[in-house]
Amino acid sequence: MPSYDYECETCGESFTLKKTFEEHDHLKELKCPKCGSAKVRQLIAPVFAKTSKKS
Ligand SMILES: [Zn+2]
Question: 32-44 pLDDT, tens per residue?
Answer without folding.
Answer: 999 999 999 988 7
